[in-house]
Specification:
It comes from Rubroshorea leprosula. It catalyses: 5-methyltetrahydropteroyltri-L-glutamate + L-homocysteine = tetrahydropteroyltri-L-glutamate + L-methionine. GO terms for molecular function: 5-methyltetrahydropteroyltriglutamate-homocysteine S-methyltransferase activity; methionine synthase activity; zinc ion binding. The protein has 27 helices and 22 strands. The chain is of the alpha/beta class. The strands form 6 sheets. Strands 1-12-11-10-9-8-6-2 form an 8-stranded parallel sheet. Strands 17-19-20-21-22 form a 5-stranded parallel sheet. Strand 14 and strand 15 form a beta hairpin. The chain is globular and about 75 Å long.
Length: 765
């Protein structure tokens, strides 16, 4: 019985790639240094999987930034603004597309389906001259083969690539991207031919868009594409991999009849209903890659339950055609549990990171083949039983409180218009008020202070003194720049979710449980293992301290319940919405304590609300109902004069705008600039928004500094569709990943643009 891994984390167990990338971007190391680190990581990954016994090992899932961007490079689909002149795409062009440069902005970045991973959105149109411009897939296959590892090269499938793209600037929004299929398939054919010539016997196409609600025209594109590739694919075993949700019935019919395809891969963790489709009909003679090991969470597999599913599927596909696999790429989970030397031993026994999941896949494959490791399976059963009966998991008072939330819709007593009037009387803000999203640059010195405090190398008194000094510096800078509503910069926080999870019950934390979010940006998701409550105030001291340093309004900064949920590894033994309600009640306590402490503006970030939207439309209304309700729970008890902000970023919000309105926040700040002001189209189409709104005026994920004129132009575009009295001026997102040398001039230009337009608006009256 064979085993397969869809994909593997790239950053390395100690974030080796992150540090190599940042060193290269800062000019401290060479391209050869970066390539050496990458080659060492790839070699380690391939050899590790081969040592465990995995038969189908992926290659070309490694990336310096993003696999979709790698595909854009392979196809030579470089937007003209990057001045690429043909030939093999190098780091300069590649990273300019990803991050922008001094003269041009980056390409749009958005969430990969319903994950916290981001991809670079291709910009396509009828004028794009596609060419074979990156041989990475072939080069990495040859690299693995030279190490003695025969891999399965992985490509983003041609149809999913186009469906996840967008029309380039200047191209009609209605441009049918699928009409470009005939232009990109010749390049796919060249790649396939080179892989065959190099000795590849398998190839994997990731076509995750097949789990979406696609119309017949889009489904036909899959049929057409693989019919066109059939002759080139001849002689290869071809795997089409899908993941993240149940595959719709019509898509399943399309997939199972594709020409030239010999193997089909499914996520059977998030796609439990797909099992029924497979049992009802699976094409004879094809391989079934059964994704029974969860690639998106860190809980140890229930091996006995998975083996039962596999036994059922073996009866359908046949023993020689069933392959045990992960549900999706392991990119979305942490790397290796071995590195967690400080984690509670009982909780640790309940977990499996990427390295352990590889072992689980192989153990299941061996068991199916009649070589069951009884000791391994017994240990698995003991861990499952321990987790089910552990007293640390359940808190009856929390369960009771969360169960009662459906007795109310938790709305504030007055409407947003009346609240905004009351808040303006108290805050006395100018039109087009300026603010930032929360965090300020995290300097090397600041990180050192936090690290030494955690390691007990400095006293709590010294730590508080250092953090207060950093807050004072941030407050004085904002006053100097003349920003209207201030933030304290969050110097006490390494990560917005981790910080709160550390102070809530029911959470556990790792030392090296890093997961890639985008580029070199890694996050360390907390683990929610039990019922959640707030033992004591979490942010009141720091917010009060910051407010005491200024007469201007100081925002209290919180992370919302839906974002804490979606950016954590969540317990899988109860419905997600129940856990979310528990977190909401904990944040509600914090909001009310901030208000009592004199904080008049409180921001409750829901950056990940859109991210958690189910991929299938039939499941979306239920999610939005409990997600929006959870947000309202947090602030339903505050006075009209307390202004509640929220923030969202890097997702497509247009399709949930009515749910955003239903959140009933007083002000929402929302990513806008990097996505070509896509958000504004909602308001052009007539959606009425009565609360305060701050569409981001510049992209903070690029080192580029926008001019005053550029920002003023963006604000004018907003004023064309939004009322002057509700518009706020702010960056797209928090500033923690930037340097002060970038932040100061960018914010100076932002404030100057707001003042310029205030003057123009006043003179126009």
């Amino acid at each position: 019985m064979a085993s397969h891994i869809v994909g593997y984390p790239r950053m390395g167990p100690k974030r080796e790639l992150k540090f190599a990338l940042e060193s290269f971007w800062d000019g401290k190391s060479s391209a050869d240094d970066l390539k050496k680190v990458a080659a060492d990581l790839r070699s380690s990954i391939w050899k590790q999987m081969a040592h465990v016994g995995i038969k189908y090992i992926p290659s070309n899932t490694f990336s310096y930034y993003d696999q979709m961007l790698d595909t854009t490079a392979m196809l030579g689909a470089v937007p003209p603004r990057y001045d690429w002149n043909g030939g093999e795409i190098g780091f300069d062009t590649y990273f300019s597309m990803a991050r922008g440069n001094a003269s041009v902005p980056a390409m749009e970045m958005t969430k990969w389906f319903d994950t916290n991973y981001h991809f670079i959105v291709p910009e396509l149109g009828p004028e794009v001259n596609f060419s074979y411009a990156s041989h990475k897939a072939v080069d990495e296959y040859k690299e693995a083969k030279a190490l003695g590892v025969d891999t399965v090269p992985v490509l983003i499938g041609p149809v999913s690539y186009l469906l996840l793209s967008k029309p380039a600037k200047g191209v009609e929004k209605s441009f049918p991207l699928l009409c470009l299929l005939g232009k990109i398939l010749p390049i796919y054919k060249k790649v396939i031919s080179e892989l065959k010539a190099a000795g590849a016997s398998w190839i994997q196409f990731d076509e995750p868009t097949l789990v979406l609600d696609l119309d017949s025209h889009k489904l036909q594109a899959f049929t057409d594409a693989y019919a066109e590739l059939e002759s080139t694919l001849s002689g290869l075993n071809v795997l089409i991999e899908t993941y993240f949700a149940n595959i719709p019935t019509e898509a399943y019919k399309t997939l199972t009849t594709l020409k030239g395809v010999t193997a089909l891969g499914f996520d059977l963790v998030r796609g439990t209903k797909t099992v029924d489709l497979i049992k009802s009909h699976f094409p004879k003679g094809k391989y079934l890659f059964a994704g029974v090991v969860d690639g998106r969470n860190i809980w140890a597999n229930d091996l006995a339950a998975s083996l039962n599913i596999l036994n059922d599927l073996e009866a359908v596909a046949g023993r020689d055609k069933l392959v045990v696999s992960t549900s999706c790429s392991l990119l979305h989970t942490a790397v290796d549990l071995v590195n967690e030397t400080k984690l509670d031993q009982e909780i640790k026994s309940w977990l499996a990171f990427a390295a352990q999941k590889v072992v689980e896949v192989n153990a299941l494959a061996k068991a199916l083949a009649g070589h069951k490791d009884e000791a391994f399976f017994s240990a698995s059963a003991a861990a499952q039983a321990s987790r089910k009966c552990s007293p640390r998991v359940t808190n009856e008072a929390v369960q009771k409180a969360a169960a009662a939330v459906n007795d109310s819709d938790h709305r504030r007593a007055t409407n947003v218009s009346a609240r905004l009037d009351a808040q303006q009387k108290k805050l006395n803000l100018p039109i087009l008020p300026t603010t930032t999203i929360g965090s300020f640059p995290q300097t090397i010195e600041l990180r050192r202070v936090r690290r030494e405090y955690k390691a007990n190398k400095i006293s709590e008194q010294d730590y508080i003194k250092a953090i207060k000094e950093e807050i004072k510096k941030v407050v004085e800078l904002q006053e100097e720049l003349d920003i209207d509503v201030l933030v304290h910069g969050e110097p006490e926080r390494n990560d917005m979710v981790e910080y709160f999870g550390e102070q809530l019950s029911g959470f556990a934390f790792t030392v090296n449980g890093w997961v890639q979010s985008y580029g070199s940006r890694c996050v360390k998701p907390p683990i929610i293992y039990g019922d959640v409550s707030r033992p004591k105030p979490m942010t009141v001291f720091w917010s009060s301290t910051a407010q005491s340093m200024t007469a201007r309004p100081m925002k209290g900064m919180l992370t919302g319940p839906v974002t804490i949920l979606n950016w954590s590894f969540v317990r899988n033994d109860q419905p997600r919405h129940e856990t979310c309600y528990q977190i909401a009640l904990a944040i509600k306590d914090e909001v009310e304590d901030l208000e009592k402490a004199g904080i008049n503006v409180i921001q409750i970030d829901e950056a990940a609300l859109r991210e958690g939207l189910p991929l299938r439309k039939s499941e979306q209304a239920f999610y939005l109902d409990w997600a929006v309700h959870s947000f309202r729970i947090t602030n339903c008890g505050v006075q009209d004069t307390t202004q509640i902000h929220t923030h969202m970023c890097y997702s497509n919000f247009n399709d949930i705008i009515h749910s955003i309105i239903d959140m009933d926040a007083d002000v929402i700040t929302i990513e806008n600039s990097r996505s070509d002001e896509k958000l504004l189209s909602v308001f052009r189409e007539g959606v009425k928004y009565g609360a305060g709104i701050g569409p981001g005026v510049y992209d903070i994920h690029s080192p580029r500094i926008p001019s005053t004129e550029e920002i003023a132009d963006r604000i004018n575009k907003m004023l064309a569709v939004l009322e002057t009295n509700i518009l706020w001026v702010n960056p797209d997102c928090g500033l923690k990943t930037r340097k002060y040398a970038e932040v100061k001039p960018a914010l100076k230009n932002m404030v100057a643009a707001a003042k310029l337009l205030r003057t123009e608006l006043a003179s126009a009256k």
